[in-house]
Design goal:
Number of helices: 13
Radius of gyration: 19 Å
Number of domains: 2
CATH topology of the largest domain: Rossmann fold
Distance between the termini: 54 Å
CATH superfamily of the largest domain: NAD(P)-binding Rossmann-like Domain
Structural class: alpha/beta
Order of helices and strands: EHEHEHEHEHHEHEHEHEHHHH
Largest sheet: 7 strands, parallel
Strand order of the largest sheet: 3-2-1-4-5-6-8
């Protein structure tokens, strides 16, 4: 592949870091990568050492995005759970169209009820952030840049971030997920990245415009039991209110993320939508997806019992 693949979010973020994973997976296959990072630091140095062309830029700056797309035919788009998604997606889509990109793999979120009309799908969005993703998907489609959307639910990494401290200190998960029979659809960020990298590295055209990716559909009870088995000690689940949860995490989450997750929890508690695991990871990558319990075992250190 003579043209580099542009990977946004390549330095990685606080949780899923799919951009960093996609860049690393492509580099391991010998695929040239142009890594777009928000700032130069040790993480960008590591990417450069792996062989990436590192470019400092801002997805909200049109000139920055246009410059990053020079001599690019394929790109991976992801944006943090923060303000600016629609603006960034629009800027990226316009620049991609001007640069005649043939494929944009867009890291989106899970969508509404199958069979919905386009407008009803917008009405069924469980949060404002999820609505923005649905709109961003349409923007990429209208730009006619070969857009492919990976539509995934919350990541295992989100669960790790939500309960890691309280499990380590109190063997307890305090969450506003209602009764322990509530179903929480999940997927691993690593699998999202593997699907994205496989689509980008394959010289052919993807067979679908959207790839729903749900790996696990556990109840809260099943999730907590799996975590306990993985780390070798029993864990309690304690149901708390949205207000209690918001007060506990407001110092760690920006208002945009807090609003998104609060509405997502409310949607899950209602139980109006039935989630089904998909075969996307196996179909696209040829390997089985990471299970929830495998993730917990591999990340047991985050839940290590407090020594106090």
């Amino acid at each position: 592949m003579s043209h580099p693949i542009l990977v946004t979010g390549a330095a990685g973020g606080a949780q899923g870091s799919t951009g960093r994973l996609v860049a690393s997976l492509l580099l391991e296959q010998g695929v040239p990568v142009r890594a777009l990072v928000h700032k130069l630091d040790s993480r960008s140095d590591e990417l450069r050492e792996k062989g990436a062309e590192v470019v400092e830029g801002d997805l909200l700056n049109p000139a920055s995005v246009q410059g990053a797309m020079r001599n690019v035919k394929r790109a991976y788009f992801t944006y943090p759970v923060a303000d600016g998604l629609l603006e960034a997606a629009t800027i990226f889509a316009v620049a991609a169209r001007d640069a005649s990109l043939e494929l944009v793999v867009n890291n989106s979120q899970f969508q509404g009820v199958p069979g919905d009309t386009a407008f009803r799908a917008l009405q069924h969005a469980p949060s404002f952030r999820n609505l923005q993703h649905r709109l961003a998907d349409r923007i990429f489609d209208w730009a006619q840049v070969g857009a492919v959307h990976i539509q995934a639910p919350p990541y295992y990494e989100n669960v790790r971030a939500l309960v890691g401290r309280s499990v380590a200190e109190q063997n307890t998960a305090f969450l506003p997920w209602g009764e322990d029979k509530t179903v929480i659809p999940l997927a691993g960020a690593e699998d999202v990245a593997r699907v994205a990298a496989a689509l980008l590295a394959n010289p052919g055209v993807p067979s679908q415009s959207a790839y729903p990716l749900i790996t696990a559909t556990p109840t809260v009870k099943q999730m907590i039991e799996a975590l306990g088995r993985a780390i070798g000690r029993p864990i309690r689940y304690v149901k708390i209110t949205d207000e209690q949860w918001a007060n506990a995490v407001k110092e760690r989450l920006n208002p945009h993320a807090l609003d998104h997750l609060t509405h997502l929890w409310q949607s899950f508690r209602k139980g109006e939508q039935r989630y089904q695991a998909t075969d996307t990871v196996r179909t696209v990558t040829g390997r089985n997806p990471q299970t929830m319990e495998e993730f917990f075992r591999e990340n047991a250190g985050f839940f290590a019992a407090s020594s106090r």
